[in-house]
Amino acid sequence: MDKYQQQQSSHTSQQQQQQQQQQQQQQQQHHQRPRMLTPEEKARIVEFQEMIHYSTRYSDDNFEYRHVMLPKTMLKAIPRDYFNPETGTLRILLEQEWRGLGITQSLGWEHYENHAPEPHILLFKRPKA
């Protein structure tokens, strides 16, 4: 195996590990209860809600996708326990949690990933109809 193939194999292995971690996190969330915002937390967040930006939808054979961009300053108002302590980015939020932040979308959307280089961007997907 040459050096390029080793790098490709290593990269593929890392991607598989990340996918497994995401799947485990999603499975755990199905058993979790949402952590709802307190009235004080809602009051801090409400000023940002009209500044939330929604991308156009895009799709592949199985899913429809979109990303939601929160105002960067909004991240400071979001409770710390909404964040992953290891990465510092938002954890995968349950539907009631992201709706509590003011994200409004039709039914069926699932928060499945964050765009790590830009932690204010949340990635959503839903099965194609």
Automatic annotation (TrEMBL):
Compositional bias annotation for Low complexity: 1-29
Keywords: Cell cycle, Cell division
Keyword Isomerase annotated: no
Chain ranges passing through the membrane: none
GO biological process: one example: cell division
Gene Ontology cellular component terms for the protein in this record: cyclin-dependent protein kinase holoenzyme complex
Free-text function comment from the UniProt entry: Binds to the catalytic subunit of the cyclin dependent kinases and is essential for their biological function.
Similarity comment: Belongs to the CKS family.
Name of the protein described by the UniProt record: Cyclin-dependent kinases regulatory subunit
The species this protein was found in: Magnusiomyces paraingens
